[in-house]
Amino acid sequence: MTSASSNTLRISEIFFSLQGESSRIGLPTVFVRLTGCPLRCVYCDSAHAFSGGQAMSVQSVLDAVEKYGARYVCVTGGEPLAQKHCLALLRALCDAGYAVSLETSGAVDIGGVDGRVMKVLDIKTPGSGEVGRNLWGNLGYLSSSDEIKFVLCDEADYQWAKQMLAEHKLNARCEVLFSAVHEGLASRDLAEWILRDHLSVRMQVQLHKILWGNEVGR
Which of the residues 86, 103, 178, 200 has the least number of beta carbons within 10 Å of its own beta carbon? Predict the structure, then answer.
């Protein structure tokens, strides 16, 4: 029988940086970016991961991550769950003692994700161009240690997200994050709307964009 550590994935890049989003913002983190994504969001900042990359076994990924000596690992994409062996990678990272987070679009079933992983579920808004790809059943797999993220293009997206917040009782499931599309919606405007409407959400900005702009691998 083939061991989980020998399962092969296509890896776009592995790099060490500060976590730029989520409640772990600012923490030194190793990012493992998997190649491929079935979505094409209009604001995507990781289109370089749609194709290419390098075939690596799970063990090879673990070896690469270990060299950085970090506690936190973020598995991202593209859409990492589009690769079937992503689940094995997540389990192996957890077994190795890392605090693991997964950035997923929510367009792929998350039911098989190891319970030790912090899932950051990015619900797609109408402005993303991919709202029809949301699998709302994924909400049932979230725990209080997970997070839901909305990336907002404009006030229409904000109003839609506010409606989803109430309709699906998202605050009762886990923490909810609102952020503005970089160089699209002004973060100050989003902050004013959240305060105006007394929303119980975490406003976030992309720390890595503030520090390094659109540099790949940062």
Answer: 200
Contacts of 203 (CB under 8 A, 6+ apart): 177, 178, 179, 187, 190, 191, 194
User: Are the C-beta atoms of residues 72 and 29 closer than 8 Å to each other?
Assistant: yes
pLDDT value at 184 more than 90: no
Which CATH number applies to 4-212: 1.10.760.10, 3.20.20.70, 3.40.50.300, 1.10.540.10?
A: 3.20.20.70
With cut-offs at 50, 70 and 90, classify the pLDDT of residue 157: very high
- Cβ(178)–Cβ(122) below 8 Å: no
Which residues, 6 or more positions from 141, have their beta carbon under 8 angstroms from its beta carbon? 110, 111, 113, 119
3 state SS for 76-122: ECCCHHHCCCHHHHHHHHHHCCCEEEEEECCCCCCCCCCCCCEEEEE
Query: Are 65 and 32 contacting, i.e. CB atoms less than 8 angstroms apart?
Result: yes
Contacts of residue 199, Cβ cutoff 8 Å, sequence gap at least 6: 162, 165, 178, 193
pLDDT at 217: 61
